[in-house]
Amino acid sequence: MNREQALWCEPTVVDINRLPMRPPLGASATVEQARRGKFIRRVPLDGRWKFRLLDSPDDFNDALLRRATSKLGSAWCNIDVPANWTMHDVGDHPHYTNITMPFDGPPPRLPEHNPTGIYRRSFTVPRAWQGSQIVLHLGAADSVHLVYVNKQFVGYGTDNRLASEYDISRFVYQGTNELAVVVVRYSAQSYVEDQDQWWMAGLHRSVFVEARSAVHVRAVSCLVDYDAATHTGIADLDIEVAFVDATMPGVRVQTWIEDLAGRRVCEPQMLSVPHKYDERYVFRGHRVTTRHTVPDARPWSAEDPHRYRVMVKLLGPVREYTALVTGFRRIRVEHGEIRVNDQRITVRGVNRHDHHPERGKAVTRADMVADLVAMKQLNCNAVRTSHYPNDPAFLDLCDEYGLYVVAEANIESHAYNTSLCDDPAYLATWLARGARMVVRDRHHPSVIFWSLGNESGFGVNHDALAALVRSLDPTRPLHYEGAIFHGRNGETHAWRNGGRNATDVVCPMYPPIAAIVDYARSGADRPLVMCEYNHAMGNSNGSLADYWMAIEREPLLAGGFIWEWKDHGLRQAVDPKTNPTRSTWRYAYGGQFGD
User: Fold this and answer.
1) Active-site positions?
2) In this structure, how many other beta carbons lie within 10 angstroms of the beta carbon of residue 416?
3) Tens-place pLDDT, residues 257-274
4) Could you tell me the domains of the chain?
5) Does this model's pTM top 0.85?
């Protein structure tokens, strides 16, 4: 590989040329189209791609990019995107581990056999896109990826559970263009993706390309609040406008809040966008901030998930509309309780992995709906996105159906639990993964806690991330089990006073019932919510009633999240002659794929 490509083994590099994270936004030509989520100048790239699997990223070379996609030979097969290539018959398989890495360490050492997939397809840039910023959106790639457009290196990205976007404007031309995405299965980042689940690989979330106008709304930050005493909803907006080539005067944005039927519930506000640096110490870029207050607002809760829509209208040389759905609610941890809208809640939650028995991590919206409907039917009111950010559609659905969410950063260094959290080489990884999650998802009313990750010790990297998350979103409390398990100065099981900077709740894993009752009667001041308990995989889950007798008796006990939501079997073809059931398939588990 060329110099710019020797990146997957370097933990300090989290991206090259990747655009800053933002919420899932799109530009619409009319207000009605914005309400319906119909975006202009967006071309989906989901579907059939050409694919080739290499034994190692070292086997990749420029010759693999020379031919047009339409002229690739028999060494290339067809594959669907989104999908995990490990769920297709291409010569690489799923691998299940818990704690143990699928290859030998120490970090950042990588195996010589490191399957690497090359995805190829073409796309068309129309003449109407001239003068726009053309952006490639990759929903998620496992583990790391490199992007090439028309044989030129565009950028590199990490974090296999969050989207990456790249400005490809200078690499494309009118007409047919060639796109290649090189996905490396194992990387230095794999050491912080060591979750108890199937190791998969590939482009497993949606891909699209879009043209953003010469002036466009780049990002909208929306932090909400609800005052139960006055029944007032509050939305603090921070809107960033981007200029593709040169800044322009006379750009304005108009903002308002409306219900989902399109009725305005507050007065619109008109704001002028600063277009040049003209006042020292004051200029914050091309952005505006405002606050909307909504009288007699209907608050959001898991029992009554009422939502509103934030509308942003861009005025000036370009006129476009952008919408963001949110809801008014207040989350506090105080007086030993978790309170939503000034009401104590008890968490009846589950941990959920992205999983489908035939598609692996490439779950569809219908899969998500089925999970959430079943959760509501089973009287669940909360879900922890164990152990990484889910597709944005999942949080949209939690907002809609009414589930409280612990949104978890994609950080788990279980095999190196007490070392990487203090390793400066991985500091940028910690910060990027947590911050990008918050920036993407902070408008969701369903998110009531930010989790700093899972089973990755407790070190200075967590301290830094906690400070950054609190700065990006001062409205939500933090959750991190490692802070109360590891403590400081060798202290273990620091439930009373451990890790207060990194967690606002005591959130142990699999504690004995006697231990949580003792804590509840100890005079402690933080509520206890079990981030994992009552392990329910297989023939298990038998002590649930005993836990809930304690929870309902002790006010300081705030519930918990059962491990876990559903079975993790994968559908595997078998020879019926060797299968006792004479079936042509079975549900396979760890160890049944040669792992």
Assistant:
1) 455, 532
2) 19
3) 999 999 999 999 999 998
4) 3-24+37-211 (2.60.120.260), 215-326 (2.60.40.10), 346-562 (3.20.20.80), 569-595 (no CATH)
5) yes
